[in-house]
What does this fold into?
Amino acid sequence: MEIEEALGLLKYLVSHDHFHIVNRRDVMAQPVSRELAKSIVQQLQASDFQGHERNRNNPTQFVWIFITDDGERYYIKFVFVKNDSRVVFISFHVSY
It folds into this structure.
């Protein structure tokens, strides 16, 4: 999947509430609210793309990584699941 295609799918799924944000134990990696996530995702651009790699837990999936700055710098790491019908944000937090 190309970056623009992944970004378009991400925006579509998030705008339709087809996403889940994993709660992290690390205090520095506490996830943003669902509403803030929706707002940030809609503003993402291809230039925010940092890379993608095979998911270590499921080699048929790719982990996508974006870093954006919306007044604060956000680290966003996600996978598409259920035949690309949902997004799971592995990380979605302020980057320090």
Observations:
- Helices lie at 3-15, 34-43.
